[in-house]
Design a protein that fits this description.
The structure is a single chain. It contains eight helices and seven strands. It is an alpha/beta fold. Helix 2 links the parallel strand 2 and strand 3. Helix 1 crosses helix 8, helix 3 (67-81) packs parallel to helix 4 (104-132) and helix 6 (191-204) crosses helix 7. The longest helix is centred in the middle third of the chain and has 29 residues, at 104-132. The radius of gyration is 18 Å and the shape is globular. It binds nicotinamide-adenine-dinucleotide.
């Protein structure tokens, strides 16, 4: 149980992050939601999670590509809820194009949101975790932290980066009751995956159906999408007491993809 603890889940207005926020709330954690989205819809989401799980839920719209906004979010979360005990670095974006056509601003945005944002949240949340002698950092990486696919150079670079970052920080804080791990999901059916299908079809010169069958699910020996609930369950386990000795791990959750 995480009763009395506070969890900040970046990019939790949709997909995997929302699933993780719900799983942590179900275990009693107070939650800071973050991410893009229509204000009224996000407010409905915030109120529903708070009512359903009887926990405090805040929302902060910080743009994860902006270090100043990240600082303000971490500081106001700690001021309002006492600490960030569980930090889930999940916000992420994708863009698919051959490297010579890759828009420079997309490269910069992917590196900022998928990699540098975790550096900023981590460095800002750690002092309070150290003072409390307890903390959990869960980085949502990807199978693309372990293997590559063509046309995803920025994403693969950022995700390999987050795996290295995870291990380095795990070593830095290992004696202070703080664990740092990365979950590496294979393909999970979320808006992020849905959105990349037309561009992947274009880059490879195949149909969208072929992308699903021959590119996405072909990578996964189970031939099934990983579910948000499966990722959320592993994140909740990592956030709990029983995972105290599990640190510095880069954990595939990919239907066997990286066993190839
Ligand atoms: P999603 O698009 O459903 O959710 C992404 C979340 O990040 C949303 O809440 C969005 O608002 C938020 N976000 C995007 N840009 C932001 C910004 N600038 N500032 C703040 N928030 C921002 O995607 P998802 O599939 O749930 O992805 C979540 C994480 O899981 C990402 O890091 C992604 O790389 C990773 N992942 C996804 C898959 C998959 O197959 N879906 C597989 C492996 C890893």
């Amino acid at each position: 149980m995480l009763k009395g603890k506070t969890a900040l889940v970046t990019g939790s207005t949709s997909g995997i992050g929302l699933g993780i926020a719900e799983a942590l709330a179900a275990r009693g954690a107070n939650i800071v939601l973050n991410g893009l989205g229509d204000r009224a819809e996000v407010e409905r989401l915030r109120a529903r999670i708070a009512d359903q799980h009887r926990v405090a839920v805040r929302y902060d719209a910080a743009d994860m590509s902006r270090p100043d906004a990240i600082r303000a979010m971490v500081e106001s979360s700690i001021a309002a809820l006492g600490a960030i005990d569980v930090l889930v670095n999940n916000a992420g974006i994708q863009f698919v194009a051959p490297v010579e056509d890759f828009p420079v601003e997309k490269w910069d945005a992917i590196l900022a949101i998928n990699l540098s944002a975790a550096f900023h949240t981590t460095r800002l949340a750690l002092p309070r975790m150290k003072a409390n002698g307890w903390g959990r950092i869960v980085n949502i990486a990807s199978a693309h932290a372990l293997v590559a696919s063509p046309y995803k150079s920025a994403y693969v670079a950022a995700k390999h980066g987050i795996a290295g970052f995870t291990k380095a920080i795990a070593l830095e804080v290992a004696e202070q009751g703080i664990t740092v791990n990365a979950i590496c999901p294979g393909y999970v059916w979320t808006p992020l995956v849905e959105r990349q299908i037309p561009d992947t079809a274009k880059a490879r010169g195949i149909t969208e159906e072929q992308v699903k069958r021959d590119v996405l699910l072909a990578a996964q020996p189970t031939r099934k999408f990983v579910t948000v609930a499966e990722v959320a369950e592993l994140a909740a386990f990592l956030a709990g007491e029983r995972a105290a000795s599990l640190t510095g791990a880069i954990l595939p959750l990919d239907g066997g993809w990286t066993a190839h």
